[in-house]
Specification:
The protein is α+β, with helices and mostly antiparallel strands. The chain contains five helices and eight strands. It has one domain: endopeptidase fold (from Nostoc punctiforme). Helix 2 crosses helix 3.
């Protein structure tokens, strides 16, 4: 008798778990087929927001986390979190996307630099966060100050600047 009671309760429990309940549309999870791809500007805003989350993070060569970040790690993670694959190293990133003139730079573009005058190779990257009145602001990880926002008008960055590339 006890076994029959257990079997009956188990059957009722399993049947109730398998029943389909209609869920009101506003509380229902959205399926992947219903999700629209975000506009380009929304995607760029998301990439910049992701990078800005790391502002104040200390510099760490090869770093890609809040405990330490280098310049290419910052850009790599910001794009990766938005489902855009980039190489991990700045000189390889500089081979992606389309080169644009400095005058046409906009938010989301990548700025590339040569900061070592003895070696003429790209070794630094920053992400444009704002272009206002011809002044370009970019976020990057500086070896001396960590993840910061700088201006391309600063003498150091202006003299080290190489090119702008548009990924999106």
């Amino acid at each position: 008798m006890k076994n029959l009671l257990y079997l009956l309760l188990l059957t009722i429990f399993l049947a109730s778990c398998g029943s389909k309940k209609s869920v009101p549309r506003k509380n229902r999870a959205i399926t992947s087929s219903e999700v629209k791809a975000p506009s380009t500007s929304k995607k760029i805003d998301n990439i910049i927001s992701e990078a800005m989350r790391y502002e104040g993070t200390r510099y760490k060569f090869g770093g890609t986390t809040k405990s330490g970040m280098d310049c290419s790690g910052l850009v790599y993670i910001a794009f990766q979190e938005n489902n855009i694959a980039l190489p991990r190293v700045s000189r390889d990133m500089a081979k992606r996307g389309n080169r644009v003139s400095l005058q046409k730079a906009k938010e989301g573009d990548l700025l590339f630099f040569q900061t070592n005058k003895n070696r003429k190779v790209i070794n630094h990257v920053g992400l444009v966060t704002e272009v206002k009145g011809g002044v370009i602001q970019f976020i990057h990880s500086s070896s001396s100050r960590g993840v910061i926002v700088s201006s391309l008008d600063e003498r150091y960055w202006k003299s080290a600047f190489v090119e702008v590339r548009r990924i999106i």
